Structures are given as C-alpha cells and as structure tokens.
Amino acid sequence: MGNFFPWKSLSVLMVSIATLGVVGINQWAMPIVDDMQKEVVSHAKKELRVPAYDSIVYMPLWIEHLKEQPDNGRKKVGVFGPSTVFGTTVKDGKNTTAGVLQLHMKDKTVYNLGLTGGRFTETYAILASMIDEIDYVVYEVNYGIAVVTENEPDVMVYPTMVSKLGQSIPKDWLDEFPTKNKSSLPSDAHNWMTANVLNNWTLFHDRDALSYKFLKTRTPMEKMRRELKKQQDAKKGVKPEPAVSPYRAYDSFSSTYKAKVDKHFKSLYTWKKPFDPNNSFGLFMMEKTLDLLKEHNKKAVFYSAPLDKTLITKSKLLDWKDYNKVMGSYKKLIESRGYPYIEFNGGKNVVDHKYYHDPSHMTDAGNKLFGEILYKRLKQYGITNK
Fold it and tell me: Domain of life here (predicted)?
C-alpha cells in the first residue's frame, strides 16, 4: 500500500507551500525596509550623515538611495574613513569633517561616507560602491585602523554590509598573507549566489535592517547573547556601568574613567608584532584603493587622522617611532601613485587637547576646528575651489 502513496506529489506541494510562505514574508518585509530607508534618507539629508545609533545597518540604505538619484550637475565630494570621519563623538552633523566642508563648498555636494569601526576593507567597499557617483575623494588614513588591520586575523568586521553593497573581498587577496583568516571570507561561489540571487530578496538582503528594526540588534543571535549576559550579570550581582556621553571632553571625566579610556586606547594601538611594510595587508588594501581611483580617474587627497599628541606623549600611550614608520609607509605609497598626502601629526597638536573626547576622537568644537584646518589645506589641491 505504501508504494501507492503520492510521495512525489506531496513533496512538490510542501515545497510550493514553503516557497509561497517565503514569498509572502518577503512581500511583508519590503514596505518595512522601504520605510526604514525613507527615514534614513530624511535624517541624512538634514544631518549630513546616517543615524549614528547603527550606521552599519543604515549606510547601505543611504548608498542605495544615492545611486538611484539622477545627476543634478553638481560636483560631488565623498569623505571616507572610520569613526573619526563619521563623527561618533560629534553630536551635530554639521560639525563633522564633511559637514564643515559642505558649509564652505556650497557649489558642491559633500557626502559623509565614514563608517564607525570600518577597516580598509569596508572603506574600500563603500568607495567602490560610490565611485561612479562622486567626483572627488577625501580619504582619512587612521593609524588605529592600520594597527588592527595587521593585528587581527579577520580582515573585515562587517561582512554583511560589504556583501549587501555587492563589493565582497575576493579570497585570493589573502593568498600572500598566511596569518589572515581566509575562512572568514565567503567563497567565490557564495559571493556569486549572494550578488545574483539572494540579494534580490529583501528578506535576505536586508536581514540586518529587519533584525535591528524589531530586536535592536543586527542579528537575533546578538540579541540572545545580550539577554543572556544580562541574566548572568544579574545573578552575579554585576550592575551595568552608567553610560558616559560620547560628546564630553576628556578633561571632564573622572580620573578612574580617564584611566579606562587610556587603557583601551593603548591596547588598541599596541602592535602584536613589528610592522613589516613588505608584508602588510593594510598597505595591500591601500594599493587596491589607489588602483580603484586610477581606474576611474578620480581626483583624491589623503590625510592622517589628527591625534591628541599632548595626551598620548604625556601618558606614553603609543610609540611615535612606530607611528612614523607605519604612516610614513602609507604616505610613501600614496604619493608614489601621484596622490597628495597631508600629515597632521608631525608637530604639535593641530587641535588643542581640551577639544578631544579621547586620544583619537574630538568633540563638536574640536572637530569643527579641524574641519576648517582641513578645508584650508585642501584648497591647493583643486577640490575646494569653485
């Protein structure tokens, strides 16, 4: 009797029902993501950057919108880099580097395309996504990113975002770097499937946005980890530390909190092994970035993120010999390809210590001052001129 049961027909029916279910959920998700994108666009137009509370989720939505816009004839400037460009310690968007440049360059449109925590790989992906939409590139080289790029085995921190942008980093880029975790990058077949099939489905393409919408985290697993930690801390009697405003100046902190900030900075900027310019993944990614600019014939200026040399030197938070060797290598590479490089850490602080939130991030007042300094320096390179 069992041989006459229509197993094949039942299997087809089950697959059909599952497919219809996925299609239905995808249709439900589409307007939700559309509304999120509208909110992001509205915020970015007003504040000159995506919302700060999860810029990693919102950046692709903003970039997708920008790529869909018709050319309005205005020249466009993209400012690229990590948190110091985005302005994680800058409350008002107009005080970010891009915001100050926009204030002066009224004949152009300036985009803040900085990404908090973004390494050279993420910045490359953002630049590659926007390369046809911008005319000029202003790129901040952050020493902290140079350090973690060499220290950490994984070459990306936001692979989902890079995948959404359709700019996945090829595995063979790691062939010359055996210490890097090659398994952390998806295969070429996976990249092809993602770019050509899966990303066409809102349910997959914007899964992090949907997760953030409903769970306030980028993934359900992250939400579970947070809740579990809360429960464990409660059992142990561990109370959450009071939040400290990211917009306050370093000098306003207690001595205990200052020590915590210094310790974090020093650990982040300490090399696990000596920097080798002949075996540097960071320099390799910078080469790829320069290749991209040359291929698209883009005008660009690079500059070093200004550090609080006063505090760093006083508290011995990093070795300036290491800094000069590393950043000197980036400067040499960039200038050898015909692009200007501005070094802001060669002498005294370009912005006074009192305007810093921590050794590498400035407050609104400090960032505004630096934006003015950068604008004046950019004039000689034909980007800020009308």
Answer: Bacteria
Describe the crossing of helices 364-378 and 97-104 by its angle, rounded to 10 degrees: 50
What single DSSP character describes residue 64? H
CA of residue 167 relative to chain centroid, distance: 14
d(CA 138, CA 161): 22
- DSSP secondary structure letter of residue 271: -
Mean pLDDT for the stretch of residues 291-305: 97
Given CA atoms 210, 215, 217, 221 in this order, what sign does their dihedral have?
Answer: negative
Q: What is the mean pLDDT of residues 344-364?
A: 96
User: Which residue did the predictor score with more confidence, 218 or 178?
Assistant: 178
In sign, the C-alpha dihedral spanning 105, 42, 44, 94 is: positive
Spatial CB neighbours of 133, under 8 Å, sequence gap ≥ 6: 66, 67, 76, 78
Question: Quick check: 140 and 80 in contact, CB under 8 A?
Answer: yes
Beta strands, E only, 133-189: 136-141
Dihedrals φ, ψ of 182, to 5°? -65, -30
Cβ atoms within 10 Å, residue 241:
8
Q: 173-191 pLDDT, tens per residue?
A: 999 999 999 888 888 887 8
Closest CA to 252 of 358, 345, 94: 358
Distance in angstroms (rounded) separating the CA atoms of residues 214 and 237 = 29
Q: Answer for the pair 153, 369: CB distance below 8 angstroms, yes or no.
A: no
Lowest pLDDT segment from 121-130, 132-141, 223-232: 223-232
CB contact set of 204 (below 8 Å; sequence gap of 6+): 198
- Look at residue 89 and tell me whether its pLDDT is greater than 80: yes
- With a cut of 70, say whether residue 16 has pLDDT above it: no
Give residue for tokens 């989720």.
57
Q: What are the E-state strand segments in the chain?
A: 75-81, 108-114, 136-141, 299-304, 341-342
